[in-house]
Amino acid sequence: MGFYLALAWTLLIGSWTAMGAQNPISWEVQRFDGWYNNLMEHRWGSKGSRLQRLVPASYADGVYQPLGEPHLPNSRKLSNTAMRGPAGQASLRNRTVLGVFFGYHVLSDLVSVETPGCPAEFLNIHIPPGDPVFDPDRRGDVVLPFQRSRWDPETGRSPSNPRDLSNEVTGWLDGSAIYGSSHSWSDALRSFSGGQLASGPDPAFPRDAQSPLLMWTAPDPATGQRGPRGLYGAGPAVVPLPQPVRAAAGPRAPAVGGRGAVPARAQEGHRHLPGYRPFLDPSISPEFLAASEQFFSTLVPPGIYMRNASCHFQEVIHSNSSTSRALRVCNSYWSRKHPNLQRAEDVDALLLGMASQIAEREDHVVVEDVLDFWPGPLKFSRTDYLAGCLQRGRDLGLPSYTKARAALGLAPVTRWQDINPALSQNNHTVLEATAALYNQDLSRLELLPGGLLESHGDPGPLFSTIVLDQFVRLRDGDRYWFENTRNGLFTEEEIAEIRNTSLWDVLVAVTRMNPSALQPNVFFWHTGDPCPQPRQLSTEGLPACAPSIVRDYFEGSGFGFGVTIGALCCFPLVSLLSAWIVARLRRRNFKRLQGQDRQSIMSEKLVGGVEALEWQGHKEPSRPVLVHLQPGQICVVDGRLSVLRTIQLRPPQQVNLILSGNRGRRALLLKIPKEYDLVLLFNVEEERQVLVDNLRAALKESGLRFQEWELREQELMRAAVTREQRSHLLETFFRHLFSQVLDIDQADAGTLPLDSSQKVREALTCELSRAEFAESLGLKPQDMFVESMFSLADKDGNGYLSFREFLDILVVFMKGSPEEKSRLMFRMYDFDGNGLISKDEFIRMLRSFIEISNNCLSKDQLTEVVESMFRESGFQDKEELTWEDFHFMLRDHDSELRFTQLCVKGVEVPEVIKDLCRRASYISQEKICPSPRVSARCPHSNADVEWTAQRLKCPMDTDPPQEIRRRFGKKVTSFQPLLFTEAHREKFQRSRRHQTLQQFKRFIENYRRHIGCVAVFYAIAGGLFLERAYYYAYQAHHTGITDTTRVGIILSRGTAASISFMFSYILLTMCRNLITFLRETFLHRYVPFDAAVDFHRLIASTAIILTVLHSAGHVVNVYLFSISPLSVLSCLFPGLFHDDGSEFPQKYYWWFFQTVPGLTGVLLLLVLAIMYVFASHHFRRHSFRGFWLTHHLYTLLYVLLIIHGSFGLIQLPRFHIFFLVPALIYVGDKLVSLSRKKVEISVVKAELLPSGVTHLQFQRPQGFEYKSGQWVRIACLALGTTEYHPFTLTSAPHEDTLSLHIRAAGPWTTRLREIYSPPTGDGCAKYPKLYLDGPFGEGHQEWHKFEVSVLVGGGIGVTPFASILKDLVFKSSVSCHVFCKKIYFIWVTRTQRQFEWLADIIREVEENDCQDLVSVHIYITQLAEKFDLRTTMLYICERHFQKVLNRSLFTGLRSVTHFGRPPFEPFFKSLQEVHPQVRKIGVFSCGPPGMTKNVEKACQLINKQDRTHFSHHYENF
């Protein structure tokens, strides 16, 4: 309650003249907090002590749960029924309003239970549907909030120890409502200058409170809460006096006004003074609190008069300029913003008006200002004060009316009429309605309504007994009571003076008013007293009470909250955009580095070109080009000098030159027959004229006829044939071409446009240029094969292929017999047309085949191939071959020629041909039976060889399917699938279920360590999540956080625990030195250390998902905290909030950006977004430096994580529990790496190899031990950066130096290649030094643990296998025992020229491999499928070359060379046949992800069978 506050400043603003104030203190000083008043029970009456019950508690569970509906009636219904009545009934004893408010002042000095309890518990008031004030729309869901008060935590644990509330002020009449209950608050009110108070701008009023967090504040009468909005809310309306004065002022309060403010029976008890009783507990009882509040509420009038000293009752002016005769109570008349309360004189007028005004009657009726329009708590501006008092009584656990009377020794009441006989006679409906609410059960009637119904003029017997008991205990149990002569505080004279001081004396001294204008007893007004009130106030003539409104704490924040969440969600997008920009810039720089040499060469060739914009059509953007005129052709290049188009100028062509005549005359259209048009746009006409003049001269020089005219620019562009239009035309050309060749239906040929006849005619009459023909074959126009084929097909020699010419040659390749195909090839390469092919022409033919594979064989090598082929066929004496001789040379490859076709780009070959003709590369018989060079050293019995050959004999002929016969005619009679092995075991047909089970078993066998570690890790992370989730769901109710935000707190705290664990132990996956050491210990059998990087990615991916969930949980939390009142937030976050009466919580942006956890959380999201995006595979490949720099933000990440969790808003910090051990291990591992990084290493050799590979050979540091297959990290400060890049060692452990092969795949590696380029001139090479970190282990070094190992290398991924191959051969040559008996090395490369350095290593291995330990298979993937003409001829030449010279035509190695992608599944199946005794084969792959996935898929398919198990280990680059 807070009515007394409007009086406090005025009552005590004057200077009190206390005796002995100037004398030195010679008595015991009373504490502000009430402690040690009783020397035996120090806590009695102190601040925070529990209330002392007069009657045992009555809770629903006997402990703390309050009684409520349906056992007790609805509190709002009860207040409407028992307490509602008309206003304007005067007090029967003429009590003044000043006495009422002073009574509240005395009550607030004794007890305060307004502080909400923690955790927040609500005992809300449900409003009945149709309530005229709170639910006029009959919604039925209106609830007035009521928060339970703070209780003693030592209570409420058992029925013998029920909940007791705590008193937030001292329980003594010591002026604590004036001075507060702490020394710091008293000091804060002083100015410490001349004994004056610290006043505000108006000296008559106190200054605003700066910080209420450490100090006590009185409730604001305007709201019933504590805050800065009321009359004295800015600072308590108190006057801090010196300690002697306080010693007098505290006891003087009951003497001044107690006899008028307490009931008559209390005054009777006050006359008996037995003296101080130290064993008497003076603690405030909850019954006294409830009885006093309830009784005072019946005396409150609907308005307050104001008058001056001359008894003039003034009119009140309101903010809307209206007037009334009094201030309305419900409209907060005491607000400092009220225009009538701006000066100290206004407060004097208010006090004088209160002294003359008669209070309401002492009965059960309460005015509507209190009943319906009392300042409400939390979101509601109004509440029912009486319903709140009833709820407070239930919160206090007050007993029933009958039990209380029995416990206090009062006569029992058995009938409802006996509660108040006078009321029963005058208004019996009140008692009847109340009885109906309690179902006529008097034993259920509560103490508060029962005691209030007894009142008539004075409190009834029950309330009077309670109040009397309390004041007697307060007087007799207070050691500092002014009438206690044994405490030595006052003399008899001083005690007498205090007794004779009344509130009248105080008001006269303070206000300096005329004493005759105020009656002697200001608590009562009797006839003859000065200044009678005009009339008893009622609601008539007073302004209406402001209606109830519900405040929306989130009002105006929805848009900003959404924008903030959207901005947080945009962090990944912004990071993605930044990464894309960085990647584009890095790619541009990389291309600039790559194109510097080519650009310098092209710039020398293309000098004097004309710049223009090429218009490509309405739907395509124009592109800048450079037009260069050369003899016989027009060359169009782009800004990087890459040739975009070459237009041949050959007579007797007629060129049309069309110029635009409008829009600045800047367009030019060049029409050349059988080509798509060239449309150029220039900036000004003069630039166009320069090109036109040069073009005229070039056309005349070439002897071409040309016409020139002008058109409007729009018409010119409509007349142009764009490249897109030409492509549609050629598409129709090829579609109908193949529909005729393959007898495809019109529907299969594709849907034609509406004007199909015209389009078909245009398509059939168009002719292909050499460039278009080459593009259709996927080749370059200058290739020898294209020239030969084009010359052969161009029968009329006009430089273009017609539909009929193309059809004729295509029919031969698609349907022709082997003889027809060989004759066609013979004619192609009979350059002189004499019907014979010479050896030189044969060499040119081979060169045309080989050039498509980017292989450059020397002339001597080609001559050797031709001589061997001639000699093998018996033509060693011939210099020229007839067609019959040529066809005889191809006699062994009839089946290949049968399905040989001409592969046209964009036209699919029938799948049935692909399936039958695609060559499966199995282990050949020659590889099963040792080659002659091995047989000489490894003797075998002839019987074994013969048996093996017989067992693996392959069928020679197999009839083709009916579909092939039907499609290609009767000439197709047989074909020969080239199978090299046949299964020798009995094959069991297993069910799909058995295969799935077998595959699952093999998967578990392969990845049991991975599964175990992942299971343990995620079990711990999941356990941490569940532990926190369970705690906050079921065990954290004492904190109150779960009741405020259940889902949000469970999600945020559970994920926080898992994230703390994951972000801590992810550091261990990057302890490379520790992993390398541990993988050599027994722990390697249980932990897959080779999968550390994959595990790192897995943890990071899981952590980012949990981070998103964690953020989502906090978004929910922030929203709920933003709409939660301070009374709740002060319980949840006592370090952040103090319930100072300001109901409005902090806005959402405060949580996000003005709290340490919020701001660090936002920064963490930003850092994580940057790190994760730049660490993705795409951006890591395109900008490794961006990945390197952003990933070093991990230090900032962990700093923010520590700060984020250390603030401890909800729980104590726990991150350090997980982080400390991994952090120490990681720091130690980092120190080991740093100790190595300080040593400079000299490069002894640098060699630039083809395909952008740089070979570095450098000194081996002292004590540097490693194993084959391991990798290191190097840095080169000469590049201006300290970033380290990982590369696999290609040197073997027995070599004295270390070597790396680095492919220039990015800016760093490209610049590294530049600085290690050989020096120009005769100077001695001086290479920049390197910094080395490593070695580090990986799965490839496990190759020696398998009896048979398969190494699969793709691209630059072959580097670890170079070291392994050399290591194996070396160990076998020195008779070192190696468990691995056989290695199959599969080298997958686009062209063999890309990694020629590896061919040298393989050649060295072949020379030293005397025990045939290594079998090498090379797959060149650039070539087309085998059924293509070019690939067929290459295949024939390769097999012939290998058969004759025992080495590859392409690589010069004895290894088998294949074309196309390796078929891993058939290859692995053949290994099962070759090594039937081996139960487990290790497969190690390194290369692009697509290749390793294919290897993994093949292993999984093979492992479905109950045969040899393939264990796959891979590494992607």
Structural write-up:
The chain is α+β, with helices and mostly antiparallel strands. The chain is 43% helix and 10% strand. The chain contains 55 helices and 31 strands. The strands form nine sheets. It has an eight-stranded mixed sheet with strand order 12-11-10-9-15-14-13-16. β4 (316-317) and β5 (323-324) form a beta hairpin. α7 (264-270) packs parallel to α16 (461-476), α29 crosses α30 and α30 packs across α53. The longest helix is centred in the middle third of the chain and has 48 residues, at 558-605. The protein is elongated and about 155 Å long. The relative contact order is 0.06.
First CA to last CA: what distance?
75 Å
Physical arrangement of strands within the biggest beta sheet: 12-11-10-9-15-14-13-16
User: What does the oligomeric state look like here?
Assistant: single chain
* CA-based gyration radius: 51 Å
Which overall shape is indicated by the principal axes computed on the Cα atoms? elongated
Strand fraction: 5-15%
Give the integer mean of the pLDDT values: 75
If helices are DSSP runs of H or I spanning 4 or more residues, what is the number of helices? 55
Helix content: 40-55%
- Largest sheet entry: 8 strands, mixed
Structural class: alpha+beta
Low-pLDDT regions:
1-23, 209-252, 257-261, 597-607, 744-755, 906-989
User: Got a strand count?
Assistant: 31
